[in-house]
Amino acid sequence: MFKRHLKMRARFYLTIFFAARATLMLYAFDAAQDQVRAKELYYQGVDGDKAATKESTRLLEALAAQKPEDAVTAAYLASNRLLESGRTFALWNKNRLAKEGIGGLDRAVSMAPGNVEVRFIRAVSTWDLPSFFRRQQQSEDDLAWLASRVRPAAEAGRLERELAATALYYHGLALERRGDKTAATTVWKTTVDFSPSTKAGMAAASKLR
């Protein structure tokens, strides 16, 4: 009788364990899907779709609340803050959002300094900031750091090919801005060789004409 009782309790706890495990796996899957969708909307927002930026921000805020240590979520959310800062006409909101965005990007990189996607988001998000933010050097340093890492990351499936090509293209722009056209040309040739059909690859090809 006692053994039967122990077996029943064991089955009960095993049932709870597997049910909890299934719930956690489903939650992780849903969170991953939400992050993918948030990133898709983010890039639509970068292309000018304000509604997409708003929805991306909503999803990213929810993800960040659930998992604040996720550097990728933090980076995209911070970049959205900068996008919103550039679009608002209210100076108090513009300054607040810009500070939140820059600070959030730096925190994301500090959480995952070796993550190429996080470093890419900071590099391109701060590329065009006004000079008084003093972020040009940081953006160029990020791009230089990314230059030797994005292609292997893309080939390993850790970074989308379009993003890797964009990082290389912008690194070429940074070198051109510094006056090193020879090095910039070499980088753009690499970009075209690596990913000729992407927007960045085609932009790099136009630089070589």
Description:
This protein has 209 residues and is mainly α. The chain folds into 2 domains: 1-125, Alpha Horseshoe (Serine Threonine Protein Phosphatase 5, Tetratricopeptide repeat), CATH 1.25.40; 136-209, no CATH class. The chain has helices at residues 2-46, 50-66, 71-87, 91-111, 116-125, 136-147, 150-155, 161-177, 181-194, 199-207. The longest helix is centred in the first third of the chain and has 45 residues, at 2-46. It is globular, with a radius of gyration of 22 Å. It starts with a helix and ends with a helix. 35% of the residues are buried. Mean pLDDT is 90; it is low at 22-27.
Structure characteristics:
209 residues; Serine Threonine Protein Phosphatase 5, Tetratricopeptide repeat; single chain; 2 domains; mainly alpha
